[in-house]
Amino acid sequence: MTGLPTKSLRSAWDFFLDFCNDARGLGAQAAMLIGLGAVLEGVGLTLLIPMLGVVTETGVSSNWIVSHLPAIPGVEGRVGRLTVLLACFAVLISVRALVLWRRDVLLAELRVGFVERQRRRLVERLVAAPWTTLSRMKQARINHLLGNDVVLTGTCVHFLLQGGVSLCMLAMQWGLAFLLSPYLAALIGGMLAVASLGLLPQLAKSRELGKESAEAYLHLSTSGAEFLGGLKLAMSQNLQVRFAEEFNATLRRLAGRQVAFTRAQSRAQLAFTTLASLAGAAAILAGVALLDVPPPLLIVFVLLLARMSAPAAQLQQGAQQFANFLPSYEKIKALETELGEAGALVAAADLPAGGTLRFDKVTYRHAEGDKGVRELDLALEPGEFIGITGASGAGKTTFADLAVGLLEPHSGAISLGGRPMTEGLRARWRSVVAYAPQEAFLFHDTIRNNFLWADPAAGEEEMAEVLRIAGAGEFIAALDKVVGDKGALLSGGERQRLTLARALLRKAPLLILDETTSAIDVPTERAVLERLAALPWRPAILLIAHRAESLALCDRIIEFAEGRIVSDRRKEPAMSAR
């Protein structure tokens, strides 16, 4: 490995451009303060020369400065000149401290702002991405990117900014050294350039170790989420030990990568420090033996060398850390590319009156195989109670996703109230429909806050009404009960009834129940479905179910097989027969 690969250089350059585009005005202010801080340090170091000249009475490089110093009444001679020089030095140091304070505040704002804008941009792309893209992604991957990887991009910014500060300081210090002794400065600069070239292979290795560590962290996050999701099943079969073994193996690999990076960084630091020390020793020896540099100049030159060691070491270590964390930025950009550009939100169109939902030869095939629906021809009228049945994989859920506007047909057309279902109309349609899935989704929060997610304006009376309709009246007095992660503190039937109640809060024109009552006993389910059929705002209801008892109250039953409708029969509504 002789240097950085082209891809790494391109990633670093893309990161730099991304940061500059994000920083803009604030970045320009920070750059000015970085430069000003370096200049003030250079001026302060320059003042050391006349001070040393006055103290040693050599007058080297101090005659012009000393001759322009203001006099202090009552204090003359060397003490007076030294007093003025020290006062100027103290004022300069105070001004520099103020500049550095403001500089560090701006750098912190830039770093935090970049992290938050990266996270916000990623979320914007997530919410704008089509469901077909999102449904193929692992949630643990997205969570890891939004959490750990975005934070590590902030660490990259930190090292980038610190590298800029260090580079500016080195440039100023080397420029001052060049003014003092061009030959000694050239010697120092040449040796530091050689040391920098020798660092390139270490940067490439740091990036590879960072990439491996990022993958290991993602594996830990993914496997941990999957294990916790199936914790009850794993523990019931004593499979948690196998998970712990795999988890520990990944931890060992991760620890090995971290130790390898620390080892590589220490080797690079040792080599760089050794070469810098040799360069300093060579410069001092040359200044005394060959160039006959005056003592005050040589003292300041040695001081400059000592001052240069800190930013040089920071630059070397920061470059390796930057290369190590850069893969996190690359992963974020890869996800953004996968999600596509986050365009402006499509303006939602007004819903037409008399919203008959019509499918005209609609076909949708999933990319992963031959599943989906084909040549669907049907109309869903307002207020219909429609049962959807068929074997697993027959196309029921795909049909529901098309009806709710999550999917766009590959061929054929869907219309609402006679108007084509454009993206704008789909956006408006999704904002008013209600969907209650089989796998009940509840936040780790109170019942009240779970309901407010569906309708922020819902009051307690409305919540009590939908709880009674969903057969969950026992929760009316327990709206502040915490339900646990994904409703873990509730039974399966309780989760489904709360999910149904939350969907009812929307008072939607279309209510989709995808096996929503499968965990509820038959008598309770029948009572719930009877109340749904008698809703005063009676929506069109799509009930996806396998049980004949669940379908008994439906006005119409549509059966799917292999993506096609094989039966569409109507019957007298059960409610009218009572």
Task: Domain count, please report it.
Answer: 2
Main sheet characteristics: 6 strands, mixed
**Overall geometric form:** elongated
CATH class categorisation of the largest domain:
Mainly Alpha
Going across the biggest sheet, name each strand in turn: 6-7-8-3-9-10
Give the terminus-to-terminus CA distance. 82 Å
Helical residue percent band: 55-70%
State the CATH superfamily name of the largest domain: ABC transporter type 1, transmembrane domain
Structural class: alpha/beta
Second-tier CATH architecture of the largest domain? Up-down Bundle
Low-confidence stretches: 59-64, 573-578
In short:
This protein folds into two domains: 6-339, Up-down Bundle (ABC transporter transmembrane region fold), CATH 1.20.1560; 357-577, 3-Layer(aba) Sandwich (Rossmann fold), CATH 3.40.50. The protein is 64% helix and 10% strand. The protein has 17 helices and ten strands.
Question: How would you describe this protein?
Answer:
This protein has 578 residues and is an alpha/beta fold. The protein folds into two domains: 6-339, ABC transporter transmembrane region fold (Up-down Bundle); 357-577, Rossmann fold (3-Layer(aba) Sandwich). The chain is 64% helix and 10% strand. It has helices at 6-56, 63-67, 77-128, 131-134, 139-180, 182-229, 231-236, 240-289, 295-339, 396-404, 423-430, 447-454, 460-469, 492-504, 522-533, 548-551, 574-577; strands at 357-365, 372-380, 385-390, 411-416, 419-420, 434-436, 510-514, 540-544, 556-561, 564-570. The strands form two sheets. A six-stranded mixed beta sheet has the order 6-7-8-3-9-10, sandwiched between helices. α15 (522-533) links the parallel β7 and β8. α3 (77-128) runs parallel beside α9, α5 (139-180) runs antiparallel to α9 (295-339) and α13 (460-469) crosses α14 (492-504). The model is unreliable at 59-64 and 573-578 (pLDDT under 50).
